[in-house]
Write a structure and sequence with these properties.
The complex is a heterodimer of chains A (469) and B (314). Chain A is of the alpha/beta class and 469 residues long. Chain A has helices at 10-14, 19-28, 40-47, 68-86, 96-108, 123-135, 152-158, 175-187, 211-224, 247-250, 278-292, 297-308, 315-340, 366-375, 405-430, and strands at 54-55, 118-121, 141-146, 162-169, 172-173, 194-197, 227-231, 255-260, 272-275, 346-347, 355-359, 378-379, 381-382, 395-399. In chain A, strand 3, helix 7 (152-158) and strand 4 (162-169) form a beta-alpha-beta unit. The longest helix of chain A is centred in the last third of the chain and has 26 residues, at 315-340. Chain B has helices spanning 14-30, 44-51, 69-77, 86-93, 95-105, 117-123, 129-136, 162-169, 216-220, 235-252, 287-294, 299-312; strands spanning 2-7, 34-39, 55-58, 80-81, 112-116, 140-144, 154-156, 175-180, 184-194, 197-200, 204-208, 225-228, 256-265, 271-277. The chains are: A alpha/beta (469), B alpha+beta (314). Chains A and B meet through helix 2, helix 3, helix 14 and helix 15 of A and helix 1, helix 6, strand 7, helix 8 and helix 9 of B.
């Protein structure tokens, strides 16, 4: 028995809480913890990590093809050239070495930036956190897409933001609706602090904002002096079509740009970055000091060594190899959906990124469906995780980057079976007997249906917590 | 004593069970026992065979842990275990079975109808829905027969809500129940049964802070639900709740410990038994530990008594 397990140690004391302590703790919790989402879904999601489950739920890139000997050699370079510095604290804004890598990556996406505009962060997630920390007082309005990145939801909640979600179609956020929403807010005397968007290969929706909408968005932001947080983790993972200019390349006054090394190299290095207007960046820097002083120096030297190294793969070659892998996986998933999902279902056709967003008939609740799917050892993210207002109950996010092609086929087939089962059951319950679609391989080639149009309001039978009435 | 703490598993209440199990482990260690923690999986029998514990503490909730499966396995292996035996678990974990037993015995439980999915698929049970709705009156609670916590429980307020609620409930079980909704106060009577016979603990009332339904989220989240223990009830309601809980406890044959959930109808003042839980939660926010605490029984003593009850059982 080690010290931590000995009776009277901190672990034992911690667990000795009694009923009286519960109320005592409750009184200590900050009010922001009450609006944090969690629990039911978190507990369900915990089961998705069991080894027998084919998880289409994660957002994990595939790190299995990075050559171990390259990793070893790079780490060895770090040890040989920068041991003491890698083991030391670094500047809050990040090492110049890494800022230059950032500039190089951004150049490959058509953006020229000054390294002084860069803040190196602990993953792209920290950018969302720092932007909230810098801009939001409790009750401030944030506008984002409906659905939005599920990982941003707890961040918005933690800063007690009042989140307004604007619907999307295949061209991304509906900027007309955005303007109407902003007008309405203005009439109510409220001015949002920023618009959060994933314009390219949206997580979870899988769609990409059109050039017209991009121009509209930056026009609206500029006219209203409103900041836009452009979250672009997947931009380089394009499997078809031509790249579109980022929001940041259309406007550098009102766009805060966020990206990450997670999808082009490794989420394990926990390195992302922000590029923002100087006054905003300065405040974010102060916020980062308070959060973690600086991001890992070891990781930063590793990334620096990787970009400098002449040893294959070059970072561009590695990204190209990932694109090949993910494109095949995406195609397998689209084919499998066409083959196994009933015709009542719709899904998006992403040109890049890691996710497909599928929408089922509105009488199917995907949170409950997940429980049934877990019986068949397959998992996804229920759509409700991407909304703050209870919408999304019939949708699901499917990831195709984290598991192999055979598993995708098998997983989608199992999922298709439980969905068909529920469609058929609903049919017998309502006497409608909707026909279950026969296999339709050709569907993958058909135009993508508008998945977000006319989303029926959820019947009031869902007793999940609502943040607003 | 060598105590295997069985926790985790593959049920939807896995996380809750891990939390219960961790607390139980700590308590057992403080009590001087040798603890063998087991996250229940495919290697369970192998592990138990290798470890040969003196007794198994079942901290598993939901499927496998509460429905008699684990208990049956332990019987076969000749390992003593905490809580109820196989048949009691089977009766209690199936809410429909439990409610039939209660109704047959004259114990008040909300009216209900239960069907398997085949009744709808093969026998046209959907045709009977209007008659059911007519008898139960809206709102109707639709729930899976076996799920613990509140996962899969839906309120149907109109006939149009019912099919959707049924589809959701069938996500958790092949058998579901439509139950008359009792509007009122949510009460729980926990029971410890050791050498001195079954002892009902002070009643816990759960008052959700935000949602108007005591759901899965608030049940396990500190600060989300306010618990009042002992519940502020008049003497006769308190006594009646205790009596009903003991009756159900005996009827289902629960042993060691358990919890009986009731509703106090706010319009009629009548008490109704909803269900009994053979392996109630033992987390920081769980009702049984709170009730024990209110009775002056600390967590360690509670665990010791549950363990002792397992050892005296023949």
């Amino acid at each position: 028995m080690n010290g931590a397990d000995r009776p009277g140690s901190s672990r034992s004391r911690r667990s000795r809480s009694t009923a009286r302590d519960i109320e005592r703790y409750a009184a200590l919790f900050a009010s922001r913890t009450r609006v944090m989402k969690s629990s039911a879904m978190r507990d369900l999601m915990a089961l998705t990590e069991r080894p027998e489950v084919i998880s289409l739920a994660g957002g994990w890139p595939d790190t299995s093809t990075f050559p171990p000997d390259s990793y070893a050699a790079l780490m060895s370079d770090v040890a040989g050239n920068s041991c003491a510095r890698a083991l030391q604290y670094g500047p809050t804004e990040g090492l110049m070495l890494v800022k230059q890598c950032v500039a190089e990556v951004m150049r490959s996406e058509g953006m020229e930036i000054d390294v002084d505009e860069v803040l190196v962060t602990t993953g792209g997630q920290q950018v969302i956190d720092l932007v909230c920390k810098t801009l939001l007082d409790p009750g401030d309005v944030v506008v984002c897409e409906a659905p939005t990145y599920p990982g941003a939801v707890p961040t918005f909640c933690a800063y007690q933001a009042d989140v307004v979600q604007v619907t999307m179609d295949r061209d991304g956020m509906r900027t007309g609706e955005l303007e109407a929403t902003l007008e309405e807010l203005e009439r109510a005397g409220r001015r949002p602090k920023f618009v959060y968007t994933v314009p390219t290969f949206h997580n979870p929706a899988g769609v990409t904002m059109s050039l017209e909408r991009r121009s509209e968005l930056v026009r609206i932001a500029s006219e209203r002096e409103l900041l836009v947080l452009e979250d672009n983790p997947y931009g380089l993972l394009r499997y078809e079509g031509s790249p579109l200019p980022t929001l940041r390349s259309l406007d550098d006054e009102f766009v805060i740009y966020a990206s990450t090394f997670s999808k082009i190299l490794s989420p394990g290095v926990r390195l992302g970055w922000a590029v923002a207007p100087a006054p905003v960046l300065e405040k974010m820097n102060i916020g980062k000091q308070a959060s973690d002083l600086c991001s890992s120096s070891i990781s930063q030297y590793f990334v620096g060594a990787y970009f400098e190294s002449t040893r294959p793969p070059s970072w561009e070659d590695y990204v190209r190899s990932l694109i090949e892998i993910y494109r095949r996986r995406r195609d397998v998933m689209l084919d499998s959906l066409a083959e196994h999902f009933p015709r009542e279902a719709e899904w998006t056709h992403p040109e890049g990124g890691l996710f497909i967003w599928a929408t089922l008939p509105d009488y199917i609740d995907t949170t409950d469906l997940l429980a049934r799917a877990l019986d068949e050892h397959v998992a996804f993210v229920p759509g409700r995780a991407a909304f703050l207002d209870g919408r999304g109950g019939s949708s699901m996010r499917l990831n195709f980057s984290g598991v192999g092609e055979d598993q995708i086929r098998e997983g989608v087939q199992r999922l298709g079976e439980v969905v068909r089962e529920q469609v058929a059951l609903y049919g017998t319950l309502t006497g409608q007997y909707p026909a279950v679609a026969p296999p339709q391989r050709e569907r993958a080639a058909q135009p993508v249906p508008e998945p977000f149009e006319d989303e029926a309001p959820l019947a009031d039978v869902l007793r999940l917590p609502r943040k607003r009435a | 004593m060598r105590v295997a703490v069985l926790k985790g598993g593959r049920s939807l209440e896995r996380q809750v069970s891990l939390r219960s199990g961790a607390r139980v482990q700590d308590a057992l260690e403080r009590l001087g026992h040798e603890v063998i923690p087991i996250d229940v999986g495919g290697d369970l029998v192998e592990l138990l065979t290798a470890e040969q514990p003196d007794v198994a503490f079942i901290a598993l909730h939901g499927r496998d842990g509460e429905d008699g499966t684990i208990q049956e396995l332990l019987e076969v292996m000749g390992i003593r275990y905490t809580g109820s035996g196989v048949s009691a678990c089977i009766r209690a974990a199936d809410k429909v079975l439990a409610k039939h037993a209660m109704r047959d015995r004259g114990i008040p439980t909300p009216d209900f109808y239960s069907f398997s999915d085949t009744a709808f698929k093969a026998l046209g049970a959907a045709q009977a829905l209007p008659a059911i709705e007519d008898r139960l009156r809206f709102p109707i609670v639709v729930k899976p027969a076996s799920q613990g916590s509140a996962l899969g429980i839906k309120f149907a307020r109109t006939p149009a809500d019912v099919p959707q609620a049924l589809v959701a409930a069938f996500s958790y079980d092949r058998k579901v129940m439509l139950e008359r909704h009792v509007a009122g106060r949510d009460l729980a009577v926990s029971i410890i049964s050791d050498g001195d016979g079954p002892l009902p603990l002070p009643i816990v009332e759960a008052v959700p802070r935000e949602e108007d339904f005591y759901d899965f989220e608030s049940r396990y989240e500190i600060g989300r639900t306010q618990f009042v223990c002992p519940a502020e009830l008049d003497e006769s309601a308190t006594a009646r709740a205790g009596e009903l809980a003991l009756e159900v406890n005996a009827l289902l044959g629960l042993a060691g410990f358990g919890r009986v959930d009731l509703m106090l109808d706010s319009s009629s003042g009548e008490l109704f038994v909803l269900e009994a839980d053979p392996v109630p939660g033992l987390t920081e926010t769980s009702l049984l530990p709170q009730a024990a605490d209110a009775a002056g029984i600390g967590f360690d003593e509670l665990i010791e008594r549950i363990l002792a009850a397992a050892l005296v059982r023949v």
